[in-house]
Amino acid sequence: MTTFWFIVIAFLWTGYFVLEGFDFGVGALLPLLARGPAERRQVLGTIGPVWDGNEVWLISAIGAMFAAFPAWYSGFLSEFYLAMVLVVVGLILRGVGLEWRGKVRSGTEAALCDAGVVTGSVLVAFLWGAIFGNLLFGTGLATVLGGALSLSLAVLHGAVFVSLKTEGAVRARARLAALLASAGALPVAIAGLSALPSGADSVPLWVTAGAAMAALAAGVALVWRRREGWAFAATATAIALATASLFGALYPAPLPGLTVAEMASAPYTLTVLTWIGLVALPGVIAYQSWTYWVFRKRLTRV
Fold first, then answer.
1. What is the Cα–Cα distance from 105 to 186, expressed in whole angstroms?
2. DSSP code for 296
3. Distances, alpha carbon 86 to alpha carbons 83, 121, 123, 127, 258, in Å
4. pLDDT-derived band of residue 198, with 50, 70 and 90 as boundaries?
5. Residue ranges per domain, the chain?
6. Membrane-spanning regions, if any (predicted)?
7. What pLDDT band is residue 192 in, cutting at 50, 70 and 90?
């Protein structure tokens, strides 16, 4: 049961990084993709209906850690206390900017909202990679590398998403931004791949990490061929496989000296959580799938 819940938590983090990844990328690219108020509304409109729902995956992941592995939850948050505070600040800045932008009237207020969206998106996208890079390798270089990897993947993922969801000049800029972002994401991803542990036990990690690299390269090629839908699927797959590699490397000791078996809640608690998850998780997935289906069309300049 402990292994099952570790996999569930890894799945929730994967959903968060895939879905919020393009949200962060869109926010970070806002000044580069939009020229004028109408195009800014067009760019932000791509994530307007979904960004807050995507954050449910983070709440679910942290909540599952608290319930299934309380020692992991407390150790994770306390070890990265300052970074987690900055994550919360970044999420607040981004959320306030997105919510207030449609309500403000002056150009100065709109510019402040845009600054909050950009700052929050860049900050959080970098910090998540830095946190997990430090958790996995424990060095300053790995912390910076992890942050650079998560930020570059988010920017690439977000650029592909905007190119998929828009038309006109914004679409063309987003495609160019995706190609430029790939020039940074691919080398950083290769550096991250080389940092994985070696040995017979690490073969599955190298397989998933290698598949992530292949998906990332395929995504870039598909952007070049103007196949935005398949390109987005490829970058999403790359992020999902990279996250799977991350949690595979963390198992069975997500914190130094503590295994999942030692950090787990009582068997009865895990059983109750399983029944709750069997009811709640399909509902979350169904609702978000419906949301993306409803808002599937491209956005024009308004």
1. 41
2. -
3. 5, 12, 8, 8, 26
4. low
5. 7-184
6. 6-34, 80-98, 110-131, 137-164, 176-197, 203-224, 231-252, 272-295
7. confident
Q: Are 116 and 30 in contact (CB under 8 A)?
A: no
* Nearest Cα to Cα of residue 215 among 196, 183, 240: 240
What would the two tokens of residue 176 be? 């160019």
Place of tokens 């998906």: 215
**Nearest alpha carbon to residue 117 among 89, 101, 103, 97:** 97
If you count DSSP H runs as helices and E runs as strands, how many of each does the chain have, helices first?
13, 0
**Is the pLDDT at 298 greater than 60, yes or no?**
yes
Closest to 137 in 3D by CA, of 250, 258, 243: 250
Q: Which residue has the tokens 């970044």?
A: 90
Angstrom distance (rounded) from CA 126 to CA 147: 4
Spatial separation of the C-alpha atoms in residues 301 and 147, rounded to whole Å? 33
Q: How far is CA 140 from the centre of its chain?
A: 22
Tokens 């979904």 correspond to 50
